[in-house]
Each structure stands twice: as C-alpha cells, then as structure tokens.
Hints:
Blueprint: H1 5-18, H2 24-43, H3 56-67, E1 70-71, E2 74-75, H4 78-97, H5 123-130, H6 138-153, H7 157-161, E3 174-178, E4 184-188, H8 191-203, H9 232-245, H10 254-267, H11 272-279, H12 284-287, H13 291-305
Antiparallel strand pairs: 1-2, 3-4
Helix pairs in contact: 1-2, 2-4, 6-8, 6-10
Amino acid sequence: MDLDLAIAIRRFLEHLEVEKNCSKLTVRNYQHYLEVLQSYFEGSGNTTPKVSDINQDLVRSFRLHLSRQAGVDGEMKIVTQGYYVIALRSFLKYLIRNDYKVMQPEKIEVPKTKDHSLKFLNGEQIERLLNQPILSTKVGIRDRAILELLFSTGLRVSELTRLNRDQINLKTREFGVIGKGGKARVVFISVRAAVFLDKYMKSRTDKDRPLFIRYGGKKDIVSEEEKMRLSPRSVERLVKHYVRLAKLPVDATPHTLRHSMATDLLRAGADLRSVQELLGHKNIATTQIYTHITDARLREVHEKYHSGNKKEDV
Length: 314
C-alpha cells in the first residue's frame, strides 16, 4: 500500500491534532518540518512523491541539504536539524502503524548535540529575584504571585498563563493542570506562594476568568473572554525584567524557575521519581538532567557516613 506524501502529511497532522491532542504550536512545527521535506523532494525532480520514496539515500541527501542551510549564526544548528529528524521519525512510525510499507524510523539516527549546562538559581538568588516586585502596586503584587507560583509549582509558562481563577484552591494549596501531550498532574502551592496569591486575588475587582491578567498594553487576543489574559511572552518579559533588577549572574527565564524548583527539591532529599511526577515528565530520562544535583548529595552522604572517611582511621 502506498500514498502520496502530501496526503500522508495532512493525515499525520490531523492525527496529532485529534488523536494525540497535541498543541497547535506542536502541529504547526511538525507541519513546517515535513513540508520542507516535501519541498526538497519536489525540488529534486519528484513532483508527486510517495511515502515509499523515503529511503536512506533520500534522507542522507536531505540531511546534507539541511546542514548547508543558513541559520542565525551561519549554518543551521545541529539541534534544529534534529527537530527535522524527530519529525520524520514520528511520521514514519505513524505510517507503519497504519500498515504502509515505509522505511524503518530506527534507521534514522538523531544527531548528537553537546551537553548544555543546566541553568538554575540557588537559594540566595531566588530570594533576590522574588523580592524585586514593588508590593505597593497592583502590578507588583501580581508579579510577585507569578514568580512565587512558578518557583513553587515548576509550571511551564504556557501552563501558568492558561490557569483560571476557579482552578486555584488556597485551602488545599493544590490544583490540577494539563501539561504537554495532554498529561494531567497535580501541583502544589507553597505556603508563601499561597500568601501572595491570596493578596493578588483579593486585589482584583474585575470578574475576568484568567488567573493572571494584563493591566495595560495591547489587547491583541481575539476572544472577548480572553482579551485580558496575560500571554506567555509577557510573563517571559516580566521575569527578565526582575532578573535584571536583581542583577543575577544567570540569564534566567520562567523555565529557569522550573529547573530551580526541581533542584531545590532534590537538594532537600526528594527522589528523582517524585520530581518526575511533579514536573510532568513522561520519561524519567528527561528528569535525569538533574542527576548532577543528586550526585552532589550522594557525595555528601558518602563523606558523612562512610567509615573510611573517619579521621581516626587514617
């Protein structure tokens, strides 16, 4: 059984949207990566490519083509090239599950990237950042609540901005959230975060549903109900603003606070599996980027408790 590549791509994108419940951004990205592949096919002389035309020679030449494309700083970055490969592998897996005879996705290796150091803030830096908003203003109260909630829960910025007021229960200090891939999890609000959330919610005189609203700027949301909701980009800007005010040596983002929350828990003795659940990671391998923290804690345990470290034995 064979199929036109263009039709197969369209069906795959519909599968991501309807069955996999992927976000619009994810679907849009996969569409871009696969349409670039289709354009490469057509530019190579195959104006009506089939899914069966995808073979190792084609993939090799396509990847060579990508590596020679212009990027922000010259050639396309390895990590960006990897996104194309991941999209193609997912596409092939979908075709195999639907009984199309295509190339095995395992034959396509994802390019290896260099390990990047994990950015997180230590305790003193977190305190400096959290204390930057001016609490005598309604914007300052809102921003302190945002910073506290990001550090307390480890929410992704998109998860934070999707929150509505009726989701928050300050008595139980917990609420449910739907994360990446439609994965549900429970997150917990620290005592301090609950205090500032309570102050912020009491300062609101409006009836708008969104938990975090804008107090000025361009109202570029189409829906009347959503016009006041703070956008992820706005949260990213306000975090960067307070990072500059705090004169932090780390170029922190909302995701840095997510890393910092995980680091804080692990340093205090939490296990990796629990942190995986709190962050909403599908695979424990994703959470293992924090193993440098557990390694440091294990060294402390070894130094403190191993009999060979006692001075009298030396």
